């Protein structure tokens, strides 16, 4: 196949002279089907494990339609403007730029989130954290009501909020299931917080979430207490970041990835400070890398202010969430 195909998206074939043959057949039109097939093959050659899905998402974005609408438009030719947009997207995707950044959004917990290079791209693994937080809310409310107390409002702290995906998914789900929660979310990056606030408004849940700029607990009042302290902190070791897939290493914000020399630097600070902001019996829930399960269990146990230290697995069966009860 011609190396100039991507640049032109015309696939013009060479022809023998008109003196030797009938007039050439007009070039084959660039239909939805043809663009999808070519793009899939091209992205496979450049290492994408999800080439067909990538092709569909990018083409739907270029055409301004839903993915499902591509299936009923297979034989439709692409307008020149769409073809030009698609060409740019495919070139960037072939250079390992994440699809979510190319199209500007990502689905997470059945909600849509705007993403830019200022925030980590929400991942399915992190949905496990959302599930654990929601279960924690339900358990706390049940315990209150069974002891004759009012259900009240459950106060949740989401640290390192990034795009706001965890805070928003929790608040939205609790709203739909009529669980009263108040969510406070912090992040050290003002650019990330801008995206998080935008996502909260877009998902119509901004009345239940407050966002604060600062490092971990720093922007909070010293007297602030929470029933659940959660987060997805940076947990990749500094040296490991450059060995990650190019999609991550070259494009996602290092600030949200770098957990220091061992990957545990932020956890050490979290474990030390969380009891100061914990309501009686508060839950501690943090996402982690699977290989960090054992050292984090040891750190929490050694601290003395945590009990019931357990690990929760993600949908792929890998240790993903460290969970504990804060006792003091």
């Amino acid at each position: 196949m011609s190396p100039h195909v991507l640049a032109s998206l015309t696939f013009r074939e060479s022809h023998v002279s008109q003196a030797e043959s009938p007039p050439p057949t007009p070039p084959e039109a660039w239909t939805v089907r043809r663009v999808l097939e070519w793009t899939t093959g091209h992205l496979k050659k450049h290492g994408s494990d999800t080439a067909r899905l990538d092709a569909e998402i990018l083409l739907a974005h270029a055409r301004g339609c839903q993915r499902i609408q591509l299936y009923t438009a297979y034989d439709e030719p692409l307008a020149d403007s769409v073809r030009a947009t698609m060409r740019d997207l495919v070139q960037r995707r072939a250079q390992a730029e994440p699809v979510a950044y190319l199209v500007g959004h990502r689905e997470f917990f059945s909600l849509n989130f705007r993403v830019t290079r200022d925030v980590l791209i929400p991942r399915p693994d992190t949905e496990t954290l959302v599930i654990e937080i929601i279960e924690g809310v339900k358990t706390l409310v049940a315990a209150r009501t069974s002891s004759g107390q009012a259900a009240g409002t459950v106060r949740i702290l989401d640290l390192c909020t990034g795009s706001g995906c965890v805070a928003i998914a929790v608040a939205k789900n609790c709203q739909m299931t009529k669980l009263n929660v108040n969510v406070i979310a912090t992040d050290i990056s003002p650019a990330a917080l801008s995206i998080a606030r935008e996502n909260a408004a877009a998902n119509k849940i901004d009345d239940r979430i407050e966002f604060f700029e600062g490092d971990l607990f720093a922007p909070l009042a010293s007297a602030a207490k929470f029933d659940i302290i959660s987060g997805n902190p940076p947990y990749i070791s500094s040296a490991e970041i450059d060995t990650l897939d190019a999609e991550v290493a070259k494009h996602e914000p290092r600030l949200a990835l770098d957990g220091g020399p061992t990957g545990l630097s932020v956890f050490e600070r979290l474990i030390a400070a969380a009891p100061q902001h914990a309501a009686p019996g508060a839950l501690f829930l943090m996402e982690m890398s699977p290989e960090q399960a054992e050292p984090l269990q040891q750190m929490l146990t050694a601290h003395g202010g945590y009990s019931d230290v357990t690990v929760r697995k993600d949908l792929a069966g890998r240790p993903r969430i460290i969970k504990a009860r804060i006792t003091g």
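The domain at 120-326 is CATH 3.40.50.150 (Rossmann fold). Residues 146 and 239 are 50 Å apart (CA to CA).
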